[in-house]
Amino acid sequence: MKLTALVLCLALMIPAAAPTETERYVALTFDDGPSGRFTRRLLDGLMEREVKATFLLCGYRMRQYPEITARIAAEGHEIGLHGYSHGAMDAMNRAQLDREIRDCLDLLPEGCAPAFLRPPGGKSGREVRGAAEDAGLALLAWDVDPRDWATSNAQQVEKAVLSKVRDGDVVLLHDMSDSSVEAALVIVDTLLSQGFRLVTVSQLAQIRGVPIVPGRNYSRFPPV
Ligand SMILES: [Zn+2]
Fold it and tell me: How far, in Å, from the CA of 186 to the mean position of ligand 1?
């Protein structure tokens, strides 16, 4: 074997994306969708930047936008559940909770096996934890919340995230308005320029060696 070929072979054997201690990660999460053009615009922007995110979807919206739901999965993003009706899960009885979860699962694209449930508003309790656990789902909270749903000012959302975000954080956003999508893409560009990697929540847990256990609650995955 010629030396150049040998060097090439050795180079190919080295995993290109092996995480190092200096690498920093953030998981962006988007609640309440899929919506129409907002989710499409967000997906276009994420694809352009080769970035993956996590979408916590509502059942009644998956029913309305099955093609966008399928696109989210096909493009390698993670899908989690956000309830069927977006009703307050902490006020539901066990039968209602089971139905909310089952009706969402029925609408997911084939082969999509979600790991997380994020109850609307993050409102949980013993019943919600029990229903999630029995469905094989962990609960997903967050630790950076720019309250993007309460403003149409994208810069305000960008600043709220970028001034707080740290390695291992889960950021809460919504793909439900132009300002949220605009802010999300600026946040992605800024974090990428700072050397962060944007990954799904399950990827982040795996990178940090944190097992995802059904019924447990997760909000961030800091470096150990
Ligand atoms: Zn919500």
Answer: 22
Work out the percent of the chain whose per-residue pLDDT is above 70: 91
- Span 185-204, average pLDDT: 98
- The pocket of ion ligand 1, defined by CB under 5 A, consists of 31-32, 120
How many CA within 13 A on the CB side of residue 167?
Answer: 11
What fold does the segment set 22-218 form as a domain? TIM Barrel (3.20.20)
- What's the 28 CA to ligand 1 centre distance in angstroms? 15
Question: For 54-67, how does the pLDDT look when each residue is reduced to its tens digit (9 = 90+)?
Answer: 999 999 999 999 99
Tokens representing residue 192 in the block: 């990428």
Catalytic status, residue 31:
yes
- Please state the domain extents for the chain: 22-218
Annotated catalytic residue 174: yes
Let me know the angle formed at the C-alpha of 51 by 50 and 55, rounded to the nearest 5 degrees: 135
CA 197, 171, 112, 124 torsion-angle sign: positive
**Dihedral angle computed from the Cα positions of residues 44, 45, 51 and 55, in that order, rounded to the nearest 10 degrees:** -70
Q: Which of 98, 174, 175, 189 is catalytic?
A: 174
Inter-residue contact 148 to 183 (CB < 8 Å): yes
What are the tens digits of pLDDT across the range 128-150? Answer: 999 999 999 999 999 999 999 99
Output the six-digit token pair for 9. 């072979």
- In whole angstroms, how far apart are CA 55 and each of 12, 71, 93, 142, 194? 34, 12, 25, 13, 24
CB half-sphere exposure, 27, CA atoms < 13 A = 29
